[in-house]
TrEMBL record:
Active site, renumbered: 245 (proton acceptor)
Cofactor detail note: Requires a divalent cation, most likely magnesium in vivo, as an electrophilic catalyst to aid phosphoryl group transfer. It is the chelate of the metal and the nucleotide that is the actual substrate.
Cofactor: Mg(2+)
Protein name: Ribokinase
Pfam families named in the record: PfkB (PF00294)
Entry binding sites for K(+): 239, 241, 275, 278, 280, 284
Residues that coordinate or bind ATP: 179, 213-218, 244-245
C-alpha cells in the first residue's frame, strides 16, 4: 500500500526566546535558524524515515524549490508538488528554554490548491491507498470527497483547527489524529478531558478511529474494538516542534507495515520522544534506526 500526503510545505523561521512573546511586548531573540517544515512535509518525512512508501502533493513558490528537493532526498515521491507564483508558505516559530513553542503561519502557495488539482492528483491513486491530510492547504472538502469516491482510506489531522473544519465532509475520514485542543474543538465540548473528547468524537463519528495525542501524558486511541492508552517516553525536551507530526507519521507507517495498533503506538511514542530532544521541524524527526 502507498500513502499520499496532500499537504503543506513551509519554510520555518525559528527564534529562540527567553519566553513566548506577550501581547504588546518586543523581545530580542537569542538565536535564529531556518528549517524545512509544514505539517504536510513533516509528516511525509516522518513516514519516509519510518520506512513507508510515501507520495507528497502540494504547492510551493519559486523560493521553496529547496523544500521539494529536501523531501525528495528522503525518498518521498514529489511528482505532484507543483510550482506556483505565490510565495512559499512559511512559519514564524518562537521556542522558549523549556522547548515550548508558539507558531504564526502564512499559507502562501499552500492555499492555491484547487479542486482541479485534487482531481488530477487523486486520479493516480485508488482503493487500498491511504491519504493523510492536515488543515494547512486549500480545497480540503474537494480532496476529501474525491478520496472517498476512489475508495482511499483517509487520515485527517485537523491542525490548525478552524471553525471551517466542522463543515468539511468528515464522514470521509477513517482516522482522526488530534491533540487535546484540536480534539475539544472538533468535539465541541467544554470538558476537555481526554475521555470526554474521545467518547464524544466516537459517538459523532462512529465509523472513524480517534487518536488523541497528549504530549507528555502520552496518547489515547479508540475505535470500535480497542481502547488503548500509551505513555510518553521520559526525555528532556529541547524543542517540541514536529513532535505531533513525527508521532503521526510513525504511527501510520507502523499500520502500513502490518503492525498492530498497540505496536504502532509504541513505535510512534519512541519516535516523538527522540524528536523533542533536537531543534527544528523536519530536521528533528528521527530515522528508524535511531529508535
Amino acid at each position: 500500500m502507498s500513502i499520499l500526503v496532500f499537504g503543506s510545505l513551509n519554510i520555518d523561521h525559528v527564534y529562540q526566546v527567553e519566553h513566548l512573546v506577550r501581547p504588546g511586548e518586543t523581545l530580542p531573540s537569542t538565536e535564529y535558524r531556518r528549517f524545512q517544515g509544514g505539517k504536510g512535509a513533516n509528516q511525509s518525512v516522518a513516514l519516509a524515515r519510518a520506512g513507508a512508501d510515501v507520495f507528497h502533493a502540494g504547492r510551493i513558490g519559486p523560493e521553496g524549490l529547496w523544500l521539494r528537493d529536501a523531501i525528495a532526498a528522503e525518498g518521498v515521491d514529489v511528482t505532484h508538488v507543483g510550482l506556483d507564483s505565490q510565495p512559499t508558505g512559511h512559519a514564524v516559530i518562537q521556542v522558549d528554554p523549556a522547548g515550548e513553542n508558539s507558531i504564526l503561519l502564512y499559507g502562501g502557495a499552500n492555499l492555491t490548491v484547487t479542486s482541479d488539482d485534487a482531481h488530477y492528483v487523486l486520479s493516480h491513486f485508488g482503493e487500498g491507498d491511504w491519504l493523510l491530510l492536515q488543515n494547512e492547504i486549500s480545497s480540503l472538502p474537494a480532496i476529501l470527497r474525491e478520496a472517498t469516491e476512489r475508495g482511499m482510506t483517509v487520515a485527517f489531522n485537523p491542525a490548525p483547527m478552524t471553525p471551517e473544519v466542522l463543515k468539511y465532509p468528515l464522514e470521509s475520514v477513517s482516522l482522526f489524529v488530534v491533540n487535546q485542543t484540536e480534539g475539544a474543538a472538533l468535539a465541541e465540548v467544554e470538558d476537555a478531558s481526554p475521555a470526554s473528547i474521545v467518547d464524544t468524537l466516537r459517538a459523532r463519528y462512529p465509523h472513524a478511529a480517534i487518536l488523541l495525542t497528549l504530549g507528555g501524558e502520552g496518547s489515547l486511541y479508540a475505535d470500535g474494538r480497542e481502547h488503548i492508552r500509551t505513555p510518553a517516553q521520559p526525555v528532556e525536551a529541547v524543542d517540541t516542534t514536529a513532535a505531533g507530526d513525527t508521532f503521526t507519521g510513525y504511527f501510520l507507517a507502523g499500520l502500513l507495515a502490518g503492525e498492530s495498533v498497540q505496536a504502532s503506538l509504541a513505535l510512534a511514542s519512541r519516535a516523538a520522544a527522540l524528536c523533542v530532544t533536537k531543534q527544528g521541524a523536519a530536521d528533528s524527526i528521527p530515522r528508524r534506526g535511531e529508535l
